[in-house]
């Protein structure tokens, strides 16, 4: 690889990382605004709870997206989407309702997530990831 190609790759990586951070900030602001509108926090603790939920929820979505993109088979993609979606559902449930478990809500919610994850895993082919040592050949 030439010096110019290596320099271009580094610059593109920096731009990509910066764009991901900007997108995460925008999504976090949207989630926080939606939660703020839904719950109308009044005390200091409620306001910080809303902000921290938005940041954690956005980070969880980013992690789920990365794991989903790295799935190498349809089964793994289904499990990642189903488990990750269910974790996000429980996180939203705890924030909005509290620790009082609404089993029907969680059960039907995870069933809906499983159906959507199955449709996504069935319709999208996993990406073949080229390993670094294959470039040398």
Main attributes?
single chain, 137 residues, mainly alpha, flat
Description:
- This protein is mostly helical.
- Helix content is 81%, strand content 0%.
- The protein contains 5 helices and no strands.
- It has helices at 3-39, 44-69, 74-96, 103-123, 132-135.
- Helix 1 (3-39) crosses helix 2 (44-69), helix 2 packs antiparallel against helix 3 and helix 3 (74-96) runs antiparallel to helix 4.
- It is flat, with a radius of gyration of 19 Å.
- The model has no long low-confidence stretch (mean pLDDT 84).
Could you give the topology of this structure?
Elements: H1 3-39, H2 44-69, H3 74-96, H4 103-123, H5 132-135
Helix pairs in contact: 1-2, 2-3, 3-4
